[in-house]
Specification:
Elements (H helix, E strand, L loop, with lengths): L1 E13 L5 E12 L10 E7 L4 H6 L6 E11 L4 E10 H9 L1
Antiparallel strand pairs: 1-2, 1-4, 2-3, 4-5
């Protein structure tokens, strides 16, 4: 699916209770639901994409950018959410194809 990626953020550390966290969040442009005529335009959505090391692979890019993104649905048993499993910036793909 083609997605406009607005930015990314790495996050790694330990909470006060000793629980560690390590992730990259990808912020994307998401179309507002205009089916009821009460909204129009776009908002931002965020998705987890691996651990904080993933950010290092993309931090040199200029945002926003258009990317081909593959999503997956996961659940904790209570909450179902979407995560990103792959992200390929289209600008880089076009440049590499010429090489």
């Amino acid at each position: 699916m083609k997605v406009t990626v607005l930015g990314m953020k790495a996050s790694k550390g330990m909470m006060e209770n000793g629980v560690t966290y390590d992730s990259t969040k990808v912020f994307t442009q998401v179309r507002l639901d205009d089916s009821k005529g009460t909204a129009k335009g776009f908002s931002g959505g965020d998705y987890t994409f691996g651990d904080s090391s993933v950010f290092e692979k993309y931090k040199h890019l200029t945002f926003p950018l258009l990317a081909e993104v593959e999503f997956d649905q996961v659940t904790s048993g209570k909450l179902v959410r979407q995560i990103i499993v792959s992200l390929q910036p289209l600008q880089i793909a076009k440049t590499e194809a010429k090489a």
